[in-house]
């Protein structure tokens, strides 16, 4: 009786297990169906049920793979997908399920790259190489040869990429005809080879492989969207605007609620942006750049964000907005080397040019050296001869296999083979020698370019120093001329017309002379001290500067003008971080110009006022003189405007010195109503 009960329970357990397997197999069929229909949210739900119901490594591997796949394609939730693919790989390895292991390896290879897990990816690639070298399974070789090809493409090793991709295509062509997805993957492999040629600017060749891919991809909207982007990149290189716009429209037609294709839409708009930037149509470029940026952020794809930041940097560089361009180019540079060395080259070249435009030679040289280094690496990898050999190897594969087979079977031809080997050695040695010579010529050319660049920097610095000396002499002429002229005028009056001076006037004017002489001496000491500090480099030396001290010195400096009422307002007791000598010279020149403007004004008055708003400091001078037109102040804005010694030199100096300390100038003036000039300085250090 007990034996009967035990047998009954065993049969019941087996029956229940069989029913459960049937249920799980049905669930797998449902997952595959919604996956093929791009219903990724539904796939995540079904896979979650499968994970909770699975009790062995086989089903756990399958359903973890499906959930990772759903998360990956549901708006690129890469970080959320990775743990499920890792669990799928682990369970497949435990149960020796080669197909499931292969699929998990393929997806992790892509996601580790997209999430910058480069160390994990290197470990994964080493393991994939072991798998393909030790298996005879056609399916595994077809999948993982493709993954190895993508790895070498990401590293810009194009010859190896094409070699592995062509191997993958040959194995995939041996897959069962019932595998509907295999056709799409063959098309993707062809399109990736086209992308490689596009990177090398061989756009016609890129289009050729794109057209090879098209028949294989027509059943997949997602794959077709990527292919249209590939065509756009080739036509951008060929400057074919009509074709670029045509393929962009095709991408928008493929958009659906289930698969928003944010990444592809961003790329499509970015290519049009690049086209209009290249043709200096910046208004049109701005329209498409906005779309590219919006969909790029929605894609949550780090490489796409890098490419969008690069395009923004190009756009701002073209606008000569170098400061903003540097911000976006630096963001793009963070991982550009790992994602795309060609983009890395462009980024550092633009950074070098931007810093050069700002006269920041140290940063310009640093980025120019990075540009040279990466450019040399890419030139070595992108050898057209290696690529031609890889393609020829593919086209003659069957012939080569036959030759190898006959050579192995016919030992009588050993002598011929040996001669062939010797010839190959001679050719290889010759090729190596030619390569070394070509490399030496190339290095010589690069060294010459670097030397020329350094000489250009030195010439620019010398030119800057010469301009600085001219400015300094102008300052001496302008700041010392007026006080000395006043002193000479008084002495002549005392000598030639002493009867005009009574004792009170004489005593008052003598005091004025003494005060003027002291101020003149003080000015000379300031200028000489400044010149001493500027002997090596005529550059600003910012420091904490109290506005109240500058106002006080200015008041003392112009104390001899007793007929003018001076007022200095500094309610917040402002403190600036700037070059005190530059600012002092600007204020003195503005005050001097205001005094000249009020020569025939009754009750002349000059008001200096300081205040701050947020991070901006304002210094304003207002006079009640006769005013002027804005054209008379044009020299403050237009660097091409030339001034003479007798007319406008003060404004010339004000303009140049203000530019050096990042000070902007606004002018408000009306005839007969006076003039207000406002200095604006950013608070660069609290």
Short description:
With 686 residues, this protein is of the alpha+beta class. Among the domains are: 23-135, Serine Threonine Protein Phosphatase 5, Tetratricopeptide repeat (Alpha Horseshoe), CATH 1.25.40; 319-409; 414-470; 540-682, Heat Shock Protein 90, CATH 3.30.565.
CATH superfamily of the domain at 540-682: Histidine kinase-like ATPase, C-terminal domain
N-C termini distance: 93 Å
CATH level-3 fold name of the domain at 540-682:
Heat Shock Protein 90
Subunit arrangement of the protein: single chain
* Share of helical residues: over 70%
Strand order of the largest sheet: 2-4-5-7-6
Runs with pLDDT <50, length 5+? 4-20, 644-648
For this structure, what is the CATH class of the domain at 540-682? Answer: Alpha Beta
> What class would the helix/strand composition place it in?
alpha+beta
Largest sheet: 5 strands, mixed
Radius of gyration from the alpha-carbon trace, in angstroms: 38 Å
Number of strands: 7
- The CATH architecture assignment of the domain at 540-682 turns out to be 2-Layer Sandwich
Question: How does this model look, in words?
Answer:
- This protein has 686 residues and is an alpha+beta fold.
- 73% of the residues lie in helices and 7% in strands.
- The strands form two sheets. A five-stranded mixed β-sheet has the order 2-4-5-7-6, covered by helices on one side.
- Strand 4 (605-613) and strand 5 (616-623) form a beta hairpin.
- The model is unreliable at 4-20 and 644-648 (pLDDT under 50).
